[in-house]
Structure formats: structure tokens, C-alpha cells
């Protein structure tokens, strides 16, 4: 059924049916455009031109879920993660980097609403010791168990991102946000750190770091600013209500397909390269 849908979506959006049907693998192996880097459109409705990726030589970086092909980003993001990896390595640990964007950004049928412009990345809480000497430089995060609490090192890693001026906001699980707001946190964040750190659905085992629109990207559309304050106020309580839990309900494949197709259709015209699969 999924294959059928992918086949149909190719006919719809590419107008070409050669070399089918592995749409997802095509999407994950195609190359970025050879143009100057630029984030185009909105975080949840846009694309990425001239994407960059890691060289594989970065200290302290472990890429996860590489098969998904979502390790492309705007140069600001690659640079930030490279620096974060170096910082982590100084503490004899590694940083697990999850999805960034596809090579040309844009919507994906699974996994994310945003991550479309090369400015979003998932960074895992778990930071393996470099002594663990992982045989591969990659890891499948699906195999990892969710963590129950945050260590001082993990909180300092979050702080590294909150303090970077390129970072616009960070999403974290409401339970962890509440813990970090409380006096029982093993390492206290400042209210400035907390300002950028916002509760959101999911994110049980990772944070989602979002960058500001880069200066080289005039077509990048900024998000509404974060409300003032540290986010430790009564708005945080809402996340623990029944109403909030309802918002977390699973979406069916049918729904996902509908959302994906409408997003592809609504992409900014400057994102036409997203459709060039062949
Ligand atoms: Zn994310």
C-alpha cells in the first residue's frame, strides 16, 4: 500500500515513472543542488539549496539513522554541530546527531513536520564515552532506550546550544523541561537558557535544535518569536493536561499521506528542485 502510494506520488509530482519504485531510497541518496547555500521558506514548509554535510572526520560526532539520508544542513548548522562535537570530545564523550534535513530539504512522509530548510536537528541526550569505541561511526537510535533522567553533562550540552547566538529555540520533552525548572535539577540553567528551551511533544530521548534564519537566506521565513520569560510558568502545566495528551495521538498512514501531498504541493516556487528526483 505504501509502495503504491509512493508510486502514485511520483507520477503526480515528477511526471516520470522510470527506475521505480524505490522512492524513499531515491530521496535519501540524491545529491544537493550545486548552488550557494540557502534556506528557503518555513521550517515546516520549505527546502534547502546547496546543502552541506559532514566530512566524517569531525571529532565527537556520531551520525544516527544514516540510511534515512537526512544528514544535510545549512552551513551554519553543520558548523554548529561540528563545534558541539569538539566540545563533547573534550569531555571524552561523543554527540549523537540524528536527523537534519534531506539533501534538498522539503517534506518527508515520516518522522517530522519541520526539518525542511536545513536549520533543524535532533541531538540525542545519550552521549557515549569515547572509550566505548563504537565499531561504526553510526548508530541506530531506534535501538536505544529512552532515558529517565538528565545528568549534569547532558544539561551542559543543552546549555551549549542555548548559548549559541545562531540558535533560535530548542524543543524538549515537557517532563524534562519541568525537571530542569525545578530545584532538583542536578545542574541549574539560567533564565536566559530556559527562554530558548521550550516544551514540545515527543523528544523523550533527544532535543530538537532550531537555528535562526541565516543572513544569506532572504527567502527564509522566521517563526513567531518565543513568548517572553523562561517557560517555567503555568503555561508549562498545560503540557500535563488531558487536552495536551490528546494532541499526541498517533496519526494514521492515510492522514500522513494527505499531509505530505498537500505540503509538496504548497512548497514555495523557489523549491522546484525538490521535485527533480531523476
Ligand atoms: Zn526534530
Report on this structure.
The chain has 278 residues and is of the alpha/beta class. It has one domain (31-245, 261-273): 2-Layer Sandwich (Muramoyl-pentapeptide Carboxypeptidase, domain 2), CATH 3.30.1380. Helix content is 30%, strand content 14%. The protein is built from nine helices and nine strands. The protein has helices at residues 2-13, 23-29, 75-90, 152-162, 174-181, 191-196, 234-238, 242-246, 253-266, and strands at residues 38-42, 45-49, 61-64, 95-97, 120-124, 138-139, 167-172, 197-199, 206-211. The strands form three sheets. The chain has a four-stranded mixed beta sheet with strand order 5-9-7-8. It has a three-stranded parallel beta sheet with strand order 4-3-6. Strands 1-2 form a two-stranded antiparallel sheet. Helix 3 links the parallel strand 3 and strand 4. Residues 1-23 have low confidence and may be disordered. The structure holds zinc ion. Zinc ion binds next to strand 5.
Topology:
Layout: H1 2-13, H2 23-29, E1 38-42, E2 45-49, E3 61-64, H3 75-90, E4 95-97, E5 120-124, E6 138-139, H4 152-162, E7 167-172, H5 174-181, H6 191-196, E8 197-199, E9 206-211, H7 234-238, H8 242-246, H9 253-266
Parallel strand pairs: 3-4, 3-6, 7-8
Antiparallel strand pairs: 1-2, 5-9, 7-9
Helix pairs in contact: 1-9
Keywords:
alpha/beta, Muramoyl-pentapeptide Carboxypeptidase, domain 2, four-stranded mixed sheet, 9 strands, 30% helix, globular, disordered N terminus, binds zinc ion
Amino acid at each position: 500500500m505504501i509502495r503504491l502510494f509512493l508510486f502514485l506520488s511520483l507520477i503526480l509530482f515528477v511526471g516520470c515513472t522510470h527506475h521505480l519504485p524505490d522512492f524513499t531510497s531515491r530521496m535519501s541518496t540524491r545529491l544537493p543542488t550545486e548552488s550557494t547555500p540557502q534556506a528557503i521558506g518555513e521550517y515546516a514548509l520549505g527546502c534547502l539549496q546547496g546543502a552541506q554535510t559532514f566530512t566524517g572526520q569531525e571529532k565527537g560526532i556520531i551520525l544516527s539513522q544514516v540510511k534515512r539520508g537526512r544528514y544535510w544542513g545549512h552551513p551554519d548548522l553543520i558548523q554548529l554541530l561540528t563545534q558541539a562535537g569538539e566540545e563533547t570530545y573534550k569531555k571524552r564523550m561523543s554527540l549523537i546527531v540524528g536527523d537534519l534535513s534531506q539533501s534538498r530539504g522539503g517534506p518527508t512522509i515520516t518522522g517530522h513536520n519541520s526539518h525542511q530548510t536545513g536549520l533543524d536537528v535532533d541531538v540525542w541526550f545519550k552521549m557515549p564515552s569515547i572509550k566505548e569505541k563504537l565499531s561504526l561511526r553510526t548508530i541506530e537510535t531506534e535501538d536505544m532506550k529512552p532515558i529517565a533522567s538528565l545528568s549534569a553533562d547532558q544539561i551542559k550540552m543543552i546549555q551549549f546550544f542555548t548559548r549559541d547566538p545562531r540558535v533560535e529555540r530548542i524543543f524538549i520533552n515537557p517532563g524534562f523541561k519541568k525537571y530542569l525548572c525545578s530545584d532538583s535539577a542536578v545542574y541549574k540553567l539560567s533564565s536566559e537558557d530556559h527562554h530558548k528551551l521550550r516544551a514540545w511533544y515527543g523528544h523523550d530521548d533527544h532535543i530538537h535544535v532550531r537555528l535562526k534564519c541565516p543572513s544569506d537566506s532572504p527567502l527564509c521565513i522566521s517563526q513567531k518569536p518565543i513568548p517572553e520569560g523562561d517557560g517555567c510558568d503555568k503555561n508549562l502545566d498545560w503540557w500535563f493536561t488531558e487536552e495536551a495528551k490528546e494532541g499526541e495521538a498517533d496519526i494514521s498512514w492515510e492522514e500522513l499521506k494527505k499531509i505530505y501531498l498537500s505540503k509538496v504541493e504548497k512548497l514555495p516556487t523557489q523549491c522546484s528542485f525538490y521535485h527533480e528526483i531523476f
